[in-house]
Amino acid sequence: MAQVIFDALRFQFQPLCNVGNAARRRNATRHSRYKLTSMHSPIKHRSAGIVVVRQLGREWRFLILRAYRNWDFPKGLLEPGEKPLAAAQRETREETGLSDLDFRWGTGSIDTEMYGDHKVVSFYLAQTAQERIVLPVNPELGHPEHDEFRWASYTEAQTLLPPRLRPILDWAWQQLAG
To answer: Dihedral of CA 85/90/92/93: which sign?
Structure first.
């Protein structure tokens, strides 16, 4: 089983399926899930989101959203009985107005390490052709959930996203390069 250990953080990056030969490993990323597992407490909150990318010429751009001083990918909590991919699509549509998502790399996902109040997020990778993003008013809050959006290059996203999301960004970058 492929495994990389982030020693400094005490997290492991490992596929959720046991894949044997190289051909099966290449195909596994299209449908398998990856997780960063913490060596600690059980998960209390499960969320799902999408790393949305858009091609600008020959370069990939990542959609990142800012709430206060924090940059993130579109994501949100699963509703009771909701599947993670459905939740990720719903949350992305609610937070950005995007509905033309193409999961051309498959529906594999990667989980964040546990953070905050024992929260884990499953992220998927999808492409959009849409440049215009809408930050609608959340009826429960009375204002938009996010203050700003940006189509960031990989390098810019590395500097803006918090450390907990860098493995997610790197995973998406590897999928784009593959």
So the answer is: positive
